[in-house]
Specification:
Helix content: over 70%
Shape: globular
CATH topology of the largest domain: Arc Repressor Mutant, subunit A
Distance between the termini: 41 Å
Structural class: mainly alpha
Number of helices: 11
Oligomer: single chain
Radius of gyration: 19 Å
Order of helices and strands: HHHHHHHHHHH
Number of domains: 2
CATH architecture of the largest domain: Orthogonal Bundle
Strand content: under 5%
Length: about 240
């Protein structure tokens, strides 16, 4: 259903798109520590994002309503998580330390470090290591990470990403730089890791479904996904496009 083609009430639209809200919430929640936050609270935040999409959508633009809505829903859910500060300062510090450890070992060894090597460098057993790496994959990169903190800046970036609006030359150059770094970093991933990224983000399979496709446990798929996110964030840091 496309919003421009159906004159429905707001409640009808919310009901129609509620499965998308729940799907997005459950995908994000799968990376959260157990009992970190109530799923219903995240669904409520997602619905608020959906309402914002309904009110802000311009049917005269070329983008589909669903594309715009998904962007707004995800943003609202992630904002809710950040406002709750569900990751303590100590946890966030550990995530940054883990990401920096991979960069350090890569420079020292002249190759990509294994999970076991990174865990040993941090003085952690693998269970502790994977708990921290799982936290790192909750959000790949936020607008704050790349230096956009004001509401006006975020709105400008969102309009560019969703609607294709032209921004100023500096913004466009920065986004193109990020895009180039990410594309190169994805290309450098091992084949299985790259496949997990593709199935999760492009085909939008769940971790369980990816495990069935690749004959892996859901837990192992989650670990591979976390490894990919850490690698990609490390590349963005190394290129200086993400703030530490």
């Amino acid at each position: 259903m496309e919003l421009a083609e159906n004159h429905l009430s707001r409640n009808q639209i919310i009901s129609e798109y509620l499965p998308y809200v729940k799907g997005i919430v459950f995908r994000i929640a799968s990376h959260l520590p157990s009992n970190a936050v109530e799923i219903d609270d995240l669904i409520s935040a997602g619905i608020i994002g959906l309402i914002g999409a309904i009110e802000g959508y311009d049917p005269s633009r070329s983008n589909k309503f669903l594309t715009y809505a998904v962007f707004r829903i995800k943003g609202a859910v992630m904002s809710e998580l950040r406002s709750r500060d569900f990751l303590s300062r100590a946890c966030r510090s550990k995530v940054r330390e883990l990401e920096n450890t991979y960069l350090y070992l890569e420079q020292k060894l002249g190759r990509k470090a294994t999970d076991e090597e990174a865990a040993m460098e941090l003085g952690l057993d693998l269970d502790e290591f994977y708990q921290i790496s799982k936290m790192s994959s909750i959000s790949f990169v936020s607008l704050e990470d790349i230096g956009y903190t004001s509401k006006k800046e975020k709105e400008k970036i969102m309009n560019y990403l969703v609607n294709g609006d032209k921004g100023d030359a500096l913004t466009l150059t920065r986004l193109k730089e990020i895009e180039t770094v990410i594309a190169k970093a994805i290309d450098e991933l091992p084949a299985k890791v790259k496949l997990v990224v593709s199935l999760y983000y492009w085909d939008e399979l769940t971790m369980r479904e990816i495990g069935e496709v690749l004959d892996l446990t859901e837990s192992r798929v989650s670990q591979i996904h976390s490894q990919a996110i850490i690698h990609l964030r490390g590349r963005l840091k190394k290129a200086g496009v993400v703030e530490d």
